[in-house]
Amino acid sequence: MNISSIQAFTGSLPTVNKPQSTADSSFGSVLNQYIQDANGAVKDFESKSLSLAKGEAVNLHDVTIAAQKASIAVSLTTQVRDKAVEAYQEMMRMQI
Length: 96
Known about the structure:
- The chain has helices spanning about 25-55, 60-95.
- By secondary structure, it is mainly α.
- It has a domain at about 25-95.
């Protein structure tokens, strides 16, 4: 019985895009960038699922991964929004 060896992984690993520390790295601009990234993940999922529904040659696992990325991105965006609203409400309750 011939058992082949395990091949080394030569592909690139995914990385997290961190915002560059420039003069325009305010909370609003960082939040806007993450919202755009989440929107991109949702659009990627929509295009892949549409291609799958049309019967085009799309791997099912790619569609599933895109769905999970979109779900996580939307969930994170929602949680950040909720925390920002909660912080704003707490600041409005402060007495000066």
